[in-house]
Fold this protein.
Amino acid sequence: MDVFKRYFFSFLIASVIIFVIAYHAEKYYEGQMPHNLTQETRDELIVKIPSGQGYETCLSLQKTKKLEYSFEAEEALEFNLHYHLEGETIFDQHPKMLQTYMGNFTPKEDAGYYCLMWGNPAEKPVSLNFRFEVLKP
């Protein structure tokens, strides 16, 4: 029984320490990491964007990488490419209405991650087919 108590208290102390560290790290980095950050370096998605709403996906992208992406939608969507810095949204590609697009992007800043966002101003849901790949230039 003595061994059980020792392991129990060791586990309890380690759990509390890990919880405290995680709690403080989350508070410190709050708002700096997007909730929708993908770990993929290549993907293809089909998304239905409801009327008046948007869809955003964020990618880990350093200055040493290049993003190739394309999309097609049933109707024109408001598209932009941006990153967040200290609560501000900085646009590398300002919002514009597009139905299809094929392009590439090499970051000028080491922001850590960049987000691609589509907004649906239409009165009905719009289907979006989106492909991307992160490459070494």
Q: What stands out?
A: The chain has two domains: 1-30, 37-135.
